[in-house]
Amino acid sequence: MSEPSWSDKLFGGFRKTSDRLSENLSVVSTAKLDDATLDDVEDALIMSDLGPSAAARIRAKLAEKRFGLTITERELKEAVAEEIAAILRPVAVPLDIVAFPRPQVILVIGVNGSGKTTTIAKLGHWLQEDDYEVMLAAGDTFRAAAIGQLKIWAERIGAPIITGPEGGDPSAIVFDGVKKATEIGTDALIVDTAGRLQNKRELMDELAKIRKVLGRLNPEAPHDVILVLDATNGQNALSQIEIFKEVAGVTGLIMTKLDGTARGGVLVAAAEQYGLPIHAIGVGETLDDLRPFDPDLVARVIAGVA
Ligand SMILES: Nc1nc2c(ncn2[C@@H]2O[C@H](COP(=O)(O)OP(=O)(O)OP(=O)(O)O)[C@@H](O)[C@H]2O)c(=O)[nH]1
């Protein structure tokens, strides 16, 4: 049997999300696009985690283009897909390795369990496939388990890793990482961090210290601060963006666990509300399950017309 194509896999992963939106939109069936129908569409979008702001925007666009026309369910879904794509396109920004001098320093933050460690490994693997040399740094020194897990992933992808003792100073590890990466000409240094939100002050202080230490080696670093979000958290993922944006200067997002959740609509809410680049999406637990963020395909999959 041949391997499922990427869009089949994406569609499979997003099935619960698209089923939910389809089900919510099907209340509309063939109908005249009047205020009452538009209300139903807006409610369906909100119930599917797209958020009130994206829902209002999509409603307004549908009204602008088709008010008073009779529309089939399929046409409605096509039209919704088009408006979702319009929201997603501006934030679909691939992660480019452009730092000069090398390495490009990529800090990865996110609450425990968001998929941060796995995403670091997947991202490393992805960059290696594009012929970049990658190094990892175990800056989450808060838990020994985090260091151990990252070591295992580093071995699996065959990337060097900089570690320190549990409870050690993350900025010292990052410093060592940049020095070593510079010495051996590594393209990207991907840094795991302890993304605890319980204490904003501590997190801010820790990141400020990392920035200060990095600044001594390269004022441009860190080049990227990527927030990893777990889509299954739904609206809660949005409040994490809000907080991390404020305390950590997030430059981009990766949303994980889009496979098997009905809450993938939150991707659209995040794009609409925050406008931060979405570099990639995670749709599974293996190394190949980090994927470029294709806004048109994702929009069609969410709307159930892929
Ligand atoms: N289904 C699915 N599972 C994922 C995805 N990304 C990560 N996971 C799983 O989510 C769990 C948590 O992932 P980790 O990478 O350990 O998350 P973390 O944020 O580093 O968590 P801690 O190690 O607890 O801080 C693991 O079981 C991963 O296999 C994804 O895209 N899809």
From TrEMBL:
Residues binding GTP, per UniProt: 110-117, 192-196, 256-259
Main location: membrane
Annotated compartments: Cell inner membrane; Cell membrane; Cytoplasm
Reactions the enzyme catalyzes: GTP + H2O = GDP + phosphate + H(+)
UniProt keyword terms in alphabetical order: Cell cycle, Cell division, Cell membrane, Cytoplasm, GTP-binding, Hydrolase, Membrane, Nucleotide-binding, Receptor
Topology of this chain in the membrane: Peripheral membrane protein
Protein name: Signal recognition particle receptor FtsY
